[in-house]
Write a structure and sequence with these properties.
With 429 residues, the protein is an alpha+beta fold. The chain has helices at residues 5-27, 81-87, 92-102, 174-180, 186-194, 406-422, and strands spanning 36-37, 53-54, 68-74, 116-122, 129-135, 140-145, 151-156, 160-169, 209-219, 222-236, 239-248, 251-255, 275-278, 281-285, 292-295, 298-301, 307-309, 314-322, 326-332, 337-347, 356-357, 362-366, 376-383, 386-387.
């Protein structure tokens, strides 16, 4: 049978359309995929075939806060995880499961009064309790995820580091000057550690002054503490003191402009911001016995619970109690020097005979155990087996900066010094 020409043409057209139809569906039909944008991104209305789905903005804990009703409270005195979870309507069985999971990263018994915690409730019709957040500190937090199964994680907040400069002229104390100038009080601690042997912070004169370059830690727009000090200048009793931070490989410390270590072999005292209440003496009126007898140590008064620091690297030889000394720790630093710390309220975790400690490490806490009229630490110092007044000794500095780092340090130091020189004191403005 033969096909007429006009029928052939129609057949050709129909077959062609059938072949082109799939391609039209693939390439020519309107898109029905949803466009996803990150927070803050937008597209012109005419370019969108369908509504835009934006990803939820995350809060400081990395959770989509916009999807939840959040209840925030503080831990009350005496409250445990059971008290807290009971407020959110969680059963004792759930609380026990969470506590067991939590122990892997955080002991729930260490929740502290005044710390914030947050409950995240879904805003949909179910109103489910999806997340629990406990703020361990300004920087660390704990998240319990109740969706599907219970999962516990411990995380740090995202921190930004911001360089800051400051100066001050002292009228009474460093602390008061920082407060008057609305500066972070942590600066006092950092500066006292760096300049512990160069500046007597309990004998600061009116007119003493400082400049400092440091870095602040921020979570979002909220300052949460001082990260570190890069450089400090202090005019103390007319004497200029400089310190510059330097880190490279295993080297880390503060050095003067010539690369000499500001750190001495021993700290000046076993406390930060020490206040001497009784000095070394061969004839002191005893506050309890009432007679005169030698007092071969230096007493530093401080509130109960103040951390006591090892003044130098060494090995703990004694952690004991006697009627006179109370709780005490003794450290051998080398074949020449030993130190002892008396009247502690308790020892720091892990401090026992044979343990090696480093300079500045917390070894115990101020108390009034033994023969003591109030909270303080009696600090004793031995040289070649004889008790001596450590405040009268001249101790060498720590190791100077190795020669191979001097060129790199000098470049860094000069850059920081120019920044310090650019800072003006209030009475220069």
């Amino acid at each position: 049978m033969t096909i007429k020409p006009y029928l052939k043409f129609r057949l050709f057209i129909i077959v062609g359309l059938l072949l082109l139809l799939p391609a039209w569906f693939i390439f020519m039909r309107p898109a029905d995929d949803v466009v996803v944008t990150l927070p803050g991104e937008t597209f012109p209305e005419e370019e969108l075939a369908e509504p835009v789905l934006t990803l939820p903005e995350l809060d400081e804990f990395g959770l989509p806060a916009g999807n939840y009703r959040i209840e925030t409270r503080r831990v009350q005195s005496g409250h445990t995880l059971s008290h807290i979870f009971d407020r959110f309507g969680l059963s004792p069985v759930i609380t026990d499961r969470v506590a067991r999971e939590m122990l892997e990263v955080f002991n729930p018994r260490r929740m502290r009064r005044g710390h914030h915690y947050h409950g995240y409730f879904s805003t949909d019709s179910t109103g489910t309790f999806d997340y629990f957040v406990y703020e361990i500190s300004d920087l660390e937090f704990l998240v319990v995820d109740f969706r599907d199964s219970i999962r516990v994680s411990r995380t740090e907040k995202e921190i930004s580091i911001v360089p800051v400069s400051a100066s001050g002229v002292i009228n009474s104390s460093l602390w008061n000057t920082l407060m008057d100038n609305q500066l972070n009080p942590e600066l006092a601690v950092h500066m006292s550690r760096i300049l512990a042997w160069s500046v007597d912070f309990y004998r600061i004169f009116p007119g003493d002054r400082f400049k400092v370059l440091y870095a602040m830690q921020y979570v979002g727009d909220r300052p949460v503490g001082v990260s570190h000090v890069d450089a400090v200048y202090f005019l103390h009793h007319g004497r200029e003191v400089e310190g510059y931070r330097f880190e490279a490989d295993t080297i880390k410390g503060y050095y003067d402009a010539d690369g000499n270590n500001l750190r001495k072999v021993f700290l000046r005292a076993p406390l930060e911001f020490p206040r001497i209440s009784s000095r070394y003496s061969h004839s002191r009126l005893h506050p309890i016995h009432g007679d005169r007898r030698p007092h071969l140590g230096t007493d530093y008064a401080a509130p109960r619970g103040t951390p006591i620091l090892a003044v130098g690297d060494g090995v703990v030889t004694e952690t004991s109690y006697t009627r006179g000394n109370g709780n005490y720790v003794r450290i051998r630093h080398n074949s020449v020097y030993e130190t002892q710390y008396l009247h502690m309220s308790r020892f720091a975790t892990g401090i026992r005979p044979g343990v090696r400690v480093t300079q500045g490490q917390v070894i115990g806490y101020v108390g009034s155990t033994g023969l003591a009229t109030g909270p303080h630490v009696c600090f004793r110092f031995w040289k070649n087996g004889r008790q001596v007044d450590h405040l009268r000794l001249e101790f060498p500095s720590g190791d100077p900066l190795p020669e191979e780092y001097l060129d790199e340090f000098t470049v860094r130091m000069r850059q920081l010094r120019r920044q310090l020189d650019a800072i003006q004191f209030e009475d220069q403005v």
